Amino acid sequence: MRQILAVAAGLVVLVSACSAPAPPRSDASVPPAGPAVLPVPTGPHPVGTTVLYLKDTSRPDPWDPDVQARELKVTLWYPTEQRDGQRARYMTPKESELFLKGTGIASAPYDTLSKTRTNAIQDAAPSGRKLPLVALSPGFTKPMSTLTSLAEDLASRGYVVAGIDHTYENYATTLSDGRVAECLACDSDSDPGFGAGAVQNRAADVSFVLDELPSAWDGSGLIDQSRIAMAGQSLGGAAALATMVRDPRVRAAIDLDGTTYARIPKNGFTKPFLFLGTEQHVPGGLDNSWDRDWKLLTGWKRWIVLTGADHESFTDSPLVSGALAIKPLPGALAAARSAELTRTYVAAFLDQHLKSQRQPLLEGPSSRYPEVEFCPATCGHS
Amino acid sequence: MTINRTAAAVLALLLAAACAAPTPPRGQAGTTAGTVCAPPSGVPEAETATTIDVIEQAYFCILGNYYSGATLDARALLAAGFLALTQELNRDGRDVPEATMPALTGDRKADWAAFEAAYRRIADQAPDLRDTLAAVTLEAMVAALGDNHARWTHDVKPPPDYYDGDGYGLGLQANVSGWQVDGSSPRVALAPLFVTTVGGGAAQAAGLRPGDVIEAINGQAPFIRGDATPAIAALYPDYPDARPVRLRLLRQTTGRRWNVTLKPGLYPRDPATLRVVQSKLLDDDIAYVRMTGFAPDSANRVLRAISRMRTGRTLAGVMLDLRGNGGGSPVEVARLVSAFVHGKVTAYQCTVDGRCAKSSTDDTVELLNLPLVVLVDHGCASACEHFSSAVKDLRIGRLVGTRTAGIISGPAQSYLLSNNTLLSFPDRHHLGPDHEVIDRIGVPPDQYVPLTPEDAAAEHDPALAKALTLLHK
């Protein structure tokens, strides 16, 4: 009976928590506006990108019991001096199709997302020295590319970004042999303990990537291995917390609107942490996890809520919704604004904690960004 | 009481998630009925206090939509509510001279008006108890239906330190379930009381093991002259009950007898053990699948697991372990039955005047054409019993273990009340494929194989062993 109780509780938590594929935001759709164009990165550097395929033979795949190794696709974004060249592809037509079908979006041709224009130059030579590294983890069911706008912006500001497609945890990831891995984890995402198990798997994925990066990527000599942070959206944000708790290399982390699952040690945990979320995540809301964790974080911490944001505001979804003929809900943040807010506050946190540059933006409300509320002190219940 | 509440709430929640009402509820009893309450939609909003207006809404919601709402004597609901109200006053060490039951006539609306007037008079004299009085009154009215799928879900708040997958309690399960103790399930409890599983928490920290016999709970005997006593309920505290529980234990293998005090609390559990569908190959030719609930898509998960184990191998049969399966969606039941037989009725859902709808097999599901043995016990409830009775009546497999819970009145529908609490109950009652009542009676196993403390201590699973021999015959 205890177990059934937890089943129910788990369902409730999950429902309010992660996945919830973004269905079209209103019943009225608009004519498609041509291919989506991701906003230009704001930092001083041009951006390069490349893909690595890594295989962890020390553990079986957590979702496919027939596979004795964990295969991961890692997308790197980094500063480069190269301004011209082939822009990186956002998704393959097949990935776009599987992602849109899985998410329940049928308002545009299924290959639409593959036409999205990105800013990073494919396989450009990396440049810079002693670059801080940011691991990036997307939301459940979402390919890594759904955080491209954020990743490109961080790279332009002088970060190396390692974005991880957690295999079988999204609708479409093309693996090294051309096979497209689909969402096996979606089978069990309503199980009690699903989130708790998933973030531990993701933490293992990230630690493995940090282990392998020096030997797997030619540019890794540019990375300052002592300055590593992690960020993620939704389940990816929960994974950022889980990874920070168990991997000493990860010094700081950001959770973008994700219900959290990892246990923070109760004897004080001092690494810097940023919660950045929607009004669903105000103190005392439906999801108890941020309130619970807030008490256990004893170092530098912020809890920021963006008025008018929704769960997808931290991803590329608003930026591609026009191309998908999805009309935003009245009162929603404009796509460009949600991208600006996400990029600005994520970068401010990383600049402060990996580059030791004090950020007044993180000290309190700002007239430039009136959408930003600092919790729990000055944010009201929605 | 609290355990009863939780068990029912949990079933209701699972069913609410599963059994989406295909059509809006029909009104059967007067003009207010049918429109007085609607199924929930969208994100739930914060609960507010229960008032007499909420009770009124629930009263007419039941009369308009419940299985026997059109025919039941509404005076019985009002009397049950009124009794609970007076008991709550007395429990608080007071009474109200005017707290006498008003005369009722059988006219549902007039009777409500009389009840409401009396209620207001009483509640006005105990303003500090207002919210509690309303809650116990409504709880008692719902309980008066005597229906194990009727439930009012309110004040649901997980513990603030709750993590996904956590359990709450002592961290143990015994051979007598909470449902047996609180009366949800009429299954007979047999002495001795012993630990069957240790899932974590205080029980694990204290070194308890399966097979440990519980000789006393808080100094009280679990059985008196063979009958289970209410003392057993202390094994299954609900949050926020955190009162320590003192146990006297006997480990039969060593003869050791000792006392422990276990404090209820949240405890983490291994996510791998919480997966609703788990599978493994037994003896290299039996596909064993354990299913803890008929959750959405769970039938497909079971079938995919079997198909994976069948790849490159000739299977001798399928063993479905449904012990402790608390139920879920009838759609999943029908799908899973359909992997073993086509063109059959798996159950009937009947109105109080005997009009029945059929649940039929989904003949688009590919037949497995494999022998089937199903492990059942007193923890197999609701949709699990739908499945078990279909297996038995349609002769698609054999049941091994002990009789099922008998908690299957009918699939519950949920209705949102004006204070954002949920009222759930069935509008039809469940019958098996042979039109037999399953509720309370349960489904008897074809092979009766109970668990003994000796088996539990030795980590021996006699039901599973019996199932293996049946499949290998």
Name given to the CATH homologous superfamily of chain A: Alpha/Beta hydrolase fold, catalytic domain
CATH architecture of chain A: 3-Layer(aba) Sandwich
Q: Measure the end-to-end span of chain B.
A: 46 Å
Q: What overall form of chain B do the CA principal axes indicate?
A: globular
Summarize the amount of helix of chain A as a percent range. Answer: 25-40%
Low-confidence stretches of chain A: 1-28
CATH topology of chain A: Rossmann fold
Class by alpha and beta content of chain A:
alpha/beta
> Hey, roughly how much beta strand do the residues of chain B contain?
15-25%
**Stretches with pLDDT under 50, minimum 5 residues of chain B:** 1-34
Query: Could you say how many structural domains of chain B there are in total?
Result: 3
Query: How are the strands of the largest sheet of chain A arranged?
Result: 3-1-2-5-4-8-9-10-11-12
Helix content of chain B: 25-40%
**Helical segment count of chain A:** 8
**Overall pLDDT level of chain A:** 91
| Mean pLDDT, all residues of chain B | 92
CATH second-level architecture of the largest domain in chain B: Alpha-Beta Complex
CATH class of chain A: Alpha Beta
Protein name (chain B): PDZ domain-containing protein
GO molecular function (chain B): endopeptidase activity; serine-type peptidase activity
Domain PDZ (chain B): 178-226
Pfam families (chain B): Peptidase_S41
Describe the structure.
The complex is a heterodimer of chains A (382) and B (473). Chain A is built from eight helices and twelve strands. Chain A is of the alpha/beta class and 382 residues long. Chain A has a single domain (42-375), classed as 3-Layer(aba) Sandwich (Rossmann fold), CATH 3.40.50.1820. In chain A, helix 3 packs across helix 8 (335-354) and helix 4 (194-216) crosses helix 5 (235-246). The two termini of chain A are 35 Å apart. Chain B starts with a helix and ends with a helix. The interface between A and B is large, with 36 and 50 residues.
